[in-house]
Design brief:
The complex is a heterodimer. Chain A is an alpha/beta fold. Chain A is built from 14 helices and 15 strands. Chain A starts with a helix and ends in a 30-residue tail after the last helix. Chain B has 17 helices and 12 strands. Classes of the chains: A alpha/beta, B alpha+beta.
C-alpha cells in the first residue's frame, strides 16, 4: 500500500502542474479497497463489554435529581469502578436532597452540605463547582435539555437518563448541545440500557452481519401494570404537586410512551438503522386517576421501503403484559435480546449466558446494564475512547414524541413535521406557586392543547 | 577518442533511455515547483486586486469580520472565492480566471453593478460552501444561540439547498445596512403626518376612486375595470410561450376595482403597525373574531434596503397578503381580496390580445440567446412600460418610472410578481372548453399562481399570459425559525401583490 500511496501522490502533483500548463486534466479517484470482512463490534459502533471501569484519575460526580432513579444511578456510578465519588447533590426539593444524602452517609460517604443545592436553579450552582467532573442528570425529562445545555457550558461529562426531552423544542436543543459536547470532547452516555447489554449487543452484531437477511418488519411492546402516582397533599401548590406527581403529567414526563416504551422504540431504531418516516396511531385513557396522560398507545411506524413497526404500550392491571421487541427478516427472525430463529422456527443462534457459581445455567448477565452503562462512561473518560449517545437517544425520544402526537391528535405525523415543530410543553417560567394552565386529556381529532 | 567514445556510450543504447527519464524527471520537478509557485503567486490578494479593480470590494472586505477581527486573522480573496484543494480548485481557478481575463479586456469595470453582484444568487456563484467549512469546521461552538442551533441543524438536514451564504452573506464584505437579526424597529415611523383620515372613501358609482385608510394618512388609487370577455392564455404561435399558458380559452369577467399600483410599503406598513403580533402562533382564522393577528417582526430588512414609500411591499407570504386584504376590508368596510388569475390577466391585457399590452415581439425583447448576449436586446417601448431585468438594476422601482397600461394600471408586468388567489396547476386551463365566467382556478393545490414577472425577469416572462408559481419551500430555506415564518419569505425578494375590490351590488350600472 505504501508504494501505491506514494505513486498516487506524485501522480497527483504531476497532474496539477500539467493542468496549469494548459494540458487536459483527467481526475482519478483514489481507490480504497473495501473491507468485505464481517463487521466487528468497533465497526458497528458497539460499546466495549467490561467487567469493571478501568483505573485512572479520580472522578467526581454531581447528581441532579435526587429521586429514586437518581439515587440509584449515583449508586450504580460509584459501584462501577475504582476511585469514583459523588460529591454534590441538587434537587428542587430539600427532602429529596436530604434523603439521598442520608443514604450515602449510611455507606460512610459524606457529601458536604455546601455542595447540596435546592430549588429550580440548584443544578446551575452544582454545575458551577470546579471539582465536579461528571454530572448525572436524573430529573423528570422536561428539564433535561436545559440541564444538559448547562453541563456542556460548564465542561462536564454527562450521564443522563432517558427520555431526554418531552417536546421537539427540547429535542433540538439537546441535539445541538450534543454536537457542542462532541466538539469539545465531553463524553455523554444515556440510560438506554439495552444498548449496553451484552446479550442485545451480540444479537445486534449477528443481525447486522446478515443472520436474518434483510429486515422487513418489527414490533415493540411495553405492557405493564399501573405505575405510581401521588395524590395531592394539603399545602402543596400547583407546581409542587405536579413535580411530586411528575410521572402523570405530560409536560414533565412526556407520557409513558416516552418514559418507558422509548427503550423498545430505541431498539427498533437501532436494529433498523434509522428513525421512522411517519407514524399513525391510537391511544386512550381508561383507568388513570391523576394527570393528563393516556393509559395505552398503539402505533404504526412507517420506516420507508415497505418496512413497518407496530409499537404498543399500556399501563393497566390485569391485562396481557410483557415487554420486548421482535424483528422479522427475509431469512429468519429475532427477539433482539438473545435468540435468532430460522424461518422454520428452529433456533439458529442463541446468546450464552454465564453459569452461576454452582455451574447451573442462568438467563442473566453478571453485571447489570444499569452499572455497565456507567462503566462505559468512565471507560471513555479514562481511556480517551470517545462516546456520545445523546443524539441517538434524542432521535429515539423524538420518535416516541411523533408517536404520542399521532395518538393524541389522531393525525398522521411525519418525521420532518415533528423535527421542526415548535411544540413546547409546560409553563414558560419555573416557579413554585399556582400554575395557570389547563391540563386536558387529549382528544384524537383535535389539536393537542398542552 | 576513447574518452569521447565512452562519453558517447553514456548517451546511446539503453543508457540513453535512462538519461531521457532523468531529464523528464528534472523537467517534471521543475514543472511541479514552477506550477506550485504559479498557483501561489496567482492566489495572492495583490495579484487578485491587480485586475479586479473594485475599491468597494476591497474596502468592505477590510471592514468585514474576515479581515477586521479580534484574533487578527486575515482571510484572503481565494480562501473564499475558490474552493479548497480537492474540491475542484484548479478547475474553478481556470474557469474564474478565463472569465476575469475576458472581463478585464472587454468590459468596463466602472460599469459593473457591484450592489447586484453582492446579492445571494450572484454570490453563490463565486463563494464556495466547502471553503467556508474548511475553516469553520465546528458548526456548534458552545456560544451558539438557540436560533443558530436551529439554523445549523436545518443546514445539516438540507445541505443541498442551503449554503452558508444564505444566512452569512455579508461576512466577507461588510454591509452596514444588513443585519442578521429580528428587525423589531421595522415600521417604526418617524415622520409626523399632517392629515389623518377618519373615514374610508364612500363609493356610490362604478368609477375609479381613491381609497383612504381610516386612522392613517395613507390613500391609494383604485381603477374601475369594466366587465367584459377576453381570450385567456397565449396562442400556440406566440413566441417564447410555455405550455401552461394554453389552451387559449374564452373567459367572461364581471366588473371589479383594481389597485392602480402594487400594494406599497406605505400601505403595508399601516397593516403591520395595526396588527403585528409578537407571538408566531396563528390565530384561528375566524371572520367573527374581531382582532386580526398580523405579521411577526420580520427577519432582517424585508425592503432589502431599497427604500419603502411607494415602492411595492415585498417578501410577505401569500397568507400574509390575504390577511392584509382581510384587514383592509375590515377598516374600509369594503370587500378587498387578491385578484383571481383570470381577473389579473383580463386587467393586464386591457383589451389587447398581443403578447404585451404594448407593441413588440418577445423574440426581440428577450435577452436570452447567444447573439443577444453580444449585441444586446431591443429595449424600445418595453423600457418605458416595464421594470425588468434589463433596466431594474436588480431592485424594485417606484411606480412613477413607468407608463400605465390601457386600463391605467401600473407595473402589472414586471417590478414584482403578484399573488393571485388561485392554486397553480400547469393544466389549469385544460378543463375550459366553452366560455367560463369568473373562473377561480383549481379547487385544490399546494402553491399559488403568481403573475407579471418581476425586476429579475427576462422580457419573455413579463408577457401578459406568462404564468408562474409560489415556491414556499425554497422561499423559506434560510428562515432560522422552526417552524418557519408564516408571514415573511426569507429567500424571495421579488414577490408582492395588488388588491382588487368587489363592486357592491347597490351600485347600479356601469358608467360608460
Amino acid at each position: 500500500m505504501g508504494n501505491n500511496d506514494q505513486y498516487g501522490l506524485n501522480r497527483r502533483k504531476f497532474l496539477e502542474s500539467t493542468a496549469l500548463a494548459g494540458l487536459g486534466l483527467i481526475g482519478a479517484g483514489a481507490a480504497i479497497s473495501a473491507c468485505k470482512n464481517e463487521k466487528n463490534a468497533r465497526a458497528l459502533g458497539l460499546p466495549p463489554i467490561l467487567k469493571a471501569a478501568p483505573k485512572g484519575r479520580k472522578l467526581r460526580a454531581g447528581l441532579v435529581g435526587c429521586g429514586n432513579r437518581g439515587t440509584g444511578a449515583a449508586m450504580n456510578f460509584i459501584s462501577c469502578g475504582p476511585d469514583l465519588h459523588i460529591v454534590a447533590l441538587a434537587d428542587v426539593f430539600q427532602d429529596r436532597v436530604d434523603s439521598c444524602r442520608e443514604r450515602f452517609a449510611k455507606m460512610k460517604m459524606d457529601i458536604q452540605a455546601e455542595n447540596c443545592f435546592t430549588g429550580f436553579d440548584g443544578f446551575k450552582k452544582l454545575m458551577a463547582l470546579a471539582d465536579v467532573d461528571i454530572v448525572i442528570l436524573a430529573t423528570p425529562p422536561h428539564f433535561r435539555p436545559e440541564h444538559f445545555k448547562e453541563a456542556v457550558l460548564q465542561n462536564k461529562h454527562v450521564f443522563m437518563e432517558k427520555p431526554v426531552a418531552v417536546d421537539p423544542v427540547g429535542i433540538r436543543s439537546l441535539i445541538a448541545s450534543a454536537k457542542k459536547a462532541e466538539a469539545i470532547g465531553l463524553n455523554v452516555v444515556t440510560g438506554t440500557q439495552r444498548r449496553h447489554q451484552q446479550d442485545y449487543i451480540e444479537t445486534y452484531q449477528q443481525v447486522a452481519n446478515g443472520a436474518i437477511g434483510k429486515l422487513v418488519s418489527a414490533r415493540a411492546f411495553w405492557n405493564q401494570n399501573h405505575v405510581w402516582f401521588r395524590t395531592r397533599e394539603e399545602g402543596w401548590d400547583d407546581m409542587t404537586y405536579m413535580i411530586r406527581n411528575w410521572n402523570n403529567f405530560c409536560w414533565l414526563c412526556g407520557d409513558h410512551i416516552l418514559d418507558t416504551h422509548v427503550h423498545n422504540i430505541d431498539v427498533i431504531n437501532w436494529f433498523l438503522g434509522r428513525p421512522p418516516e411517519s407514524a399513525i396511531g391510537y391511544g386512550g385513557r381508561a383507568r388513570r386517576l391523576t394527570g393528563d396522560q393516556y393509559d395505552f398507545f398503539s402505533i404504526d411506524f412507517d420506516y420507508g421501503d415497505g418496512v413497518f413497526s407496530h409499537s404498543m404500550c399500556r399501563q393497566i392491571d390485569n391485562c396481557a403484559n410483557g415487554t420486548g421487541e421482535f424483528i422479522m427478516g427475509t431469512k429468519g427472525y429475532t427477539n433482539c435480546i438473545n435468540t435468532i430463529w430460522n424461518m422454520d422456527g428452529s433456533i439458529k443462534w442463541e446468546f450464552k449466558y454465564p453459569k452461576d457459581s454452582n455451574g447451573n445455567d442462568t438467563n442473566k448477565l453478571i453485571i447489570p446494564p444499569y452499572v455497565q452503562e456507567h462503566m462505559h462512561l468512565v471507560h471513555a473518560i479514562r481511556t480517551g475512547e470517545y462516546v456520545n449517545q445523546a443524539e441517538q437517544t434524542a432521535l429515539s425520544t423524538l420518535t416516541a414524541i411523533m408517536a404520542r402526537t399521532a395518538a393524541y391528535t389522531g393525525k398522521k405525523v411525519t418525521w420532518e413535521e415533528i423535527y421542526k415543530s415548535d411544540m413546547y410543553l409546560g409553563p414558560k417560567e419555573m416557579v413554585f406557586g399556582p400554575v395557570n394552565m389547563q391540563f386536558e386529556v387529549p382528544i384524537p381529532g383535535t389539536a393537542h392543547k398542552a | 577518442m576513447k574518452i569521447l567514445n565512452s562519453i558517447r556510450t553514456l548517451f546511446t543504447g539503453k543508457r540513453a533511455f535512462i538519461w531521457l527519464i532523468l531529464a523528464g524527471l528534472i523537467a517534471g520537478f521543475a514543472f511541479i515547483i514552477a506550477g506550485k509557485k504559479a498557483i501561489n503567486y496567482t492566489s495572492t490578494d495583490a495579484y487578485c486586486i491587480s485586475c479586479h479593480v473594485h475599491p468597494v470590494a476591497d474596502e468592505s472586505w477590510k471592514l468585514s469580520s474576515h479581515h477586521d477581527n479580534k484574533p487578527g486573522v486575515i482571510i484572503h480573496c481565494v480562501e473564499c472565492h475558490l474552493p479548497p484543494e480537492g474540491h475542484g480548485m484548479l478547475f474553478a481557478k481556470a474557469f474564474h480566471g478565463a472569465k476575469d481575463v475576458y472581463g478585464y479586456y472587454f468590459k468596463d469595470s466602472i460599469k459593473y453593478n457591484f450592489k447586484a453582484k453582492r446579492k445571494l444568487e450572484m454570490a453563490k456563484k463565486f463563494v464556495y460552501t466547502e471553503s467556508c467549512t474548511k475553516c469553520h469546521q465546528n458548526l456548534f461552538p458552545k456560544t451558539l444561540t438557540t436560533e443558530g442551533e436551529n439554523a445549523h441543524l436545518s443546514f445539516l438536514a438540507s445541505k443541498t439547498e442551503v449554503s452558508c451564504l444564505n444566512c452569512h452573506l455579508n461576512v466577507g464584505h461588510y454591509d452596514p445596512n444588513n443585519k442578521h437579526e429580528h428587525n423589531t424597529n421595522f415600521a417604526n415611523s418617524t415622520v409626523q403626518n399632517t392629515q389623518v383620515y377618519t373615514e374610508p372613501t364612500t363609493v356610490t358609482t362604478f368609477a375609479s376612486f381613491t381609497e383612504k385608510i381610516p386612522g392613517t394618512s395613507v390613500s391609494f388609487d383604485m381603477v374601475a375595470i369594466p366587465a367584459g370577455k377576453f381570450l385567456m392564455g397565449s396562442p400556440k404561435n406566440e413566441a417564447l410561450r410555455k405550455p401552461d399558458e394554453g389552451p387559449l380559452h374564452p373567459v367572461k369577467i364581471s366588473r371589479f376595482f383594481m389597485a392602480k399600483i402594487e400594494v406599497s410599503w406605505d400601505e403595508y406598513l399601516e397593516f403591520f403597525r395595526a396588527t403585528s403580533s409578537q407571538g408566531r402562533k396563528e390565530v384561528e382564522e375566524n371572520a367573527n373574531v374581531d382582532a386580526i393577528s398580523g405579521p411577526t417582526p420580520p427577519w432582517g430588512a424585508p425592503d432589502q434596503g431599497w427604500g419603502k414609500g411607494t415602492r411595492p411591499a415585498i417578501t410577505m407570504t401569500w397568507k400574509a397578503a390575504n390577511i392584509y386584504c382581510k384587514w383592509l376590508s375590515k377598516v374600509t368596510g369594503k370587500k378587498y381580496r387578491l385578484p383571481t388569475e383570470a381577473e389579473w390577466e383580463y386587467a393586464v391585457r386591457g383589451g389587447t390580445q398581443t403578447p404585451y399590452f404594448f407593441k413588440g415581439d418577445p423574440k426581440k425583447y428577450t435577452s436570452e440567446g447567444f447573439f443577444k448576449k453580444i449585441f444586446g436586446p431591443d429595449t424600445t417601448t418595453i423600457n418605458s412600460y416595464v421594470v425588468y431585468k434589463v433596466n431594474s438594476a436588480s431592485q424594485t422601482m417606484e411606480p412613477s418610472v413607468v407608463k400605465a397600461n390601457p386600463y391605467g394600471l401600473k407595473n402589472m408586468a414586471g417590478n414584482v410578481s403578484e399573488f393571485c388567489s388561485d392554486f397553480y396547476s400547469p393544466k389549469a386551463y385544460y378543463g375550459y372548453k366553452k366560455m367560463v365566467v369568473d373562473p377561480k382556478g383549481p379547487k385544490k393545490g399546494q402553491e399559488h399562481v403568481i403573475r407579471g414577472g418581476s425586476f429579475k425577469s427576462d422580457a419573455k416572462d413579463v408577457r401578459s399570459a406568462a404564468r408562474d408559481v409560489t415556491k414556499s419551500r425554497v422561499w423559506l430555506v434560510t428562515d432560522p425559525q422552526m417552524p418557519k415564518s408564516v408571514w415573511w419569505y426569507s429567500d424571495c425578494s421579488d414577490i408582492g401583490f395588488r388588491v382588487v375590490c368587489e363592486v357592491d351590488e347597490s351600485i347600479q350600472s356601469d358608467k360608460k
